[in-house]
Design a protein that fits this description.
By secondary structure, the protein is mainly beta. It has helices spanning about 5-15, 55-60, and strands spanning about 15-20, 30, 60-65, 75, 85-90, 95-100, 120-125, 170-175. The chain contains two helices and eight strands. Strands 4-3-2-1-7-8 form a six-stranded antiparallel beta sheet. A two-stranded antiparallel ribbon has the order 5-6. It is globular and about 45 Å long.
């Protein structure tokens, strides 16, 4: 598999968690989407890294939300999200991830970043290593860089070894919000 195809397969099989918040914030909002191929047999191979449409629909139908006030993630369908818009798309060899996150919470919008204009937000992206036999067990979702709220492990709960050559993908993006007075 080419590098980009291998990374796309890694995201589809292992899932991806994105953390939002401020550096010194005691709690950050995390979204795991796609969830990966939990309990599914991978339909991917090196010659054809695409999945059948029914498997793709299942992978993209759910999301887990990590909030500081809950010990376990909150699992919802994408259709049940309130205030958050999320999706993946693939056109030719371009794989795009789109997300809209509210900057504040309210009674009607329970999930948000709690940031104001002029503040800086960190966006941490974590994709676990590919595992041998990936897709047949649930993995740790990983945590934001810096070790808050858990961390990735080598292999899953069943002790599967990591795929040779696979590595955790971790990225950090710093976003400075515009101030309406600037």
């Amino acid at each position: 598999m080419s590098g980009l195809t291998a990374r796309r397969a890694q995201i589809l099989q292992q899932g991806m968690t994105i953390w939002f918040g401020q550096e010194k914030s005691p709690g950050r909002l995390g979204l795991r989407f796609p969830l990966g191929m939990e309990g599914q047999r991978s339909g991917m191979d090196e010659k054809r890294p695409d999945l059948p449409p029914e498997q793709m629909a299942k992978i993209f139908s759910g999301v887990e939300i990590f909030v500081p006030s809950a010990e376990d993630p909150i699992r919802l369908t994408v259709d049940e999200l309130t205030g958050i818009e999320i999706g993946l798309d693939r056109k030719s060899d371009i794989f795009s991830y789109e997300i809209k996150i509210p900057l504040s919470r309210s009674e009607n919008i329970p999930y948000g970043i709690d940031a104001r204009p002029g503040e800086t937000i960190l966006v941490d992206i974590d994709v676990p290593k590919m595992e041998m036999g990936a897709g047949s067990g649930k993995r740790d979702a990983g945590g934001p860089m810096g070790g808050e709220m858990g961390g990735g492990r080598g292999g899953d709960m069943a002790g599967r070894p990591d795929m040779p050559g696979s590595k955790n993908l971790k990225f950090r993006i710093t976003v400075h919000l515009a101030d309406k007075n600037q």
